[in-house]
């Protein structure tokens, strides 16, 4: 039963590698980015609140995102495990996750940090061209990552839960590195 977090800057390949893990391990990918984009597309109240932050490359409020994750982790398919993709993204979210998983008695096994340098990220995301993939927003997302998400590297390292993987090069090679880094 795989219960992991994929941590990495925007465009580091979290979504790409999650799909491969889902196909091999049969546990759901839980992507806060996907959940938020779906809420925006469906014009739900939550989506309306999230849209401006997403368009600007800022984080959506912890309350909204943690509430979404609480609901998703309570769905039956998450009982067999999960790959958290893009969550947590702040210390407050990491602490909320610890609390949620303790209540569910489903402790996290480990955190994989996919490392890619900023210039490669800007190139990849400009090539993808999603609504929030323009240069100004990408640079802001990288700044937000540095300020709010990077502290999680130390947070999980202190808990001895962190493995770093080089995220540049062939997608299958990166996947092999991730598999080698998975918690036993
Ligand atoms: P996300 O959807 O998480 O977007 P992302 O960080 O860009 O990651 P994504 O998974 O899409 O990129 P990937 O690396 O797979 O978040 C979007 C926004 O939602 C945030 O800015 C924020 O506003 C909000 N949000 C989400 N979660 C939140 C939270 N927890 N709290 C608050 N707000 C939150 O892929 C990128 C591209 O690289 C793809 O085109 C892919 O094909 C390519 N690629 C992948 N691997 C490659 C490789 N090895 N070589 C070359 N290209 C590669």
From TrEMBL:
It comes from the Bacteria. It catalyses: AMP + ATP = 2 ADP. Residues 31-60 are annotated as: NMP. AMP binds at residues 32, 37, 58-60, 86-89, 93, 130, 141. It is an enzyme of class 2 (transferase). Coiled coil: none annotated. Pathway: Purine metabolism; AMP biosynthesis via salvage pathway; AMP from ADP: step 1/1. ATP binds at residues 11-16, 128, 169. SUPFAM superfamilies: P-loop containing nucleoside triphosphate hydrolases (SSF52540). Its EC number is 2.7.4.3. It is found in: Cytoplasm. The keyword Nucleotide-binding applies. The keyword Kinase applies. One of its GO terms (molecular function) is AMP kinase activity. Keywords: ATP-binding, Cytoplasm, Kinase, Nucleotide biosynthesis, Nucleotide-binding, Transferase. Pfam families: ADK. NCBIfam families: adk, PRK00279.1-3, PRK14527.1, PRK14528.1, PRK14531.1, PRK14532.1. Consists of three domains, a large central CORE domain and two small peripheral domains, NMPbind and LID, which undergo movements during catalysis. The LID domain closes over the site of phosphoryl transfer upon ATP binding. Assembling and dissambling the active center during each catalytic cycle provides an effective means to prevent ATP hydrolysis. Monomer. Belongs to the adenylate kinase family. Catalyzes the reversible transfer of the terminal phosphate group between ATP and AMP. Plays an important role in cellular energy homeostasis and in adenine nucleotide metabolism. This is Adenylate kinase. It comes from Salinisphaera aquimarina.
């Amino acid at each position: 039963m795989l219960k992991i977090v994929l941590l990495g800057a925007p465009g580091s390949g979290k979504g790409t590698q999650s799909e491969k893990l889902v196909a091999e391990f049969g546990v759901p990918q839980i992507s806060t980015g996907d959940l938020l984009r779906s809420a925006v597309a469906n014009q739900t109240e939550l989506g309306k609140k999230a849209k401006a932050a997403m368009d600007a490359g800022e984080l959506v409020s912890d309350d909204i995102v943690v509430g979404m994750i609480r609901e998703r982790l309570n769905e039956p398919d998450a009982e067999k495990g999960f790959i958290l993709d893009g969550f947590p993204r702040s210390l407050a979210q990491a602490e909320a996750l610890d609390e949620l998983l303790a209540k569910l008695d489903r402790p996290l096994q480990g955190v994989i940090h996919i490392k890619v340098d900023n210039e490669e990220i800007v190139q990849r995301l400009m090539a993808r061209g999603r609504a929030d993939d323009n240069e100004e927003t990408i640079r802001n997302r990288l700044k937000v990552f540095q300020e709010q998400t990077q502290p999680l590297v130390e947070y999980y390292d202190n808990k001895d839960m962190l493995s770093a993987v080089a995220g540049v090069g062939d997608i299958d090679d990166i996947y092999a590195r991730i598999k080698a880094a998975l918690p036993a």
